[in-house]
Amino acid sequence: MVGKNDIVAIFHSMHKVMKAEKVLKREGVTMLLIPVPRQLTSDCGLAIRYAVDDQAHVEEILNKEDLFPLERFRKGDDGFTQIGEEG
Q1: Does residue 41 belong to any structural domain of this protein?
Q2: Domain range spanning residue 56?
C-alpha cells in the first residue's frame, strides 16, 4: 500500500485529514487516503499517502489551507523515517 519513497502524512484529527484529502483532490494531486501503517501511530487512524516528487506541491497547498500535517514519514528500505513536524 505504501511504496518506497512515498510520503505518509498524519494529521491531528479525522476532520483535518478529510479536509486535506478534499483540498488535494481539488488541486489535482495524486494521493490516497490510507489507514495509518502499523509501524506508525495516530489517534486519527487515517493518513494521506503521496509521492515524494509531489512533496513540495502538497506542502504548499496544505500550508496555504492551514492544514499542515502533524507528522510526515518517508518509506525507505528499512521502514519509515520521520521527515518533519508541524510548524
Answers
A1: yes
A2: 7-76
Domain count for the chain: 1
Residues with Cβ within 8 Å of residue 23, at least 6 apart in sequence: 61, 62, 65, 67
Q: Which residues pair with 10 in a beta bridge?
A: 47, 71
Cell output for 37: 501503517
* pLDDT tens per residue across span 32-78: 999 998 888 767 789 999 999 999 999 999 999 999 888 999 999 99
pTM of the model: 0.88
Establish if 45 belongs to a structural domain. yes
Q: What is the DSSP letter of 36?
A: P
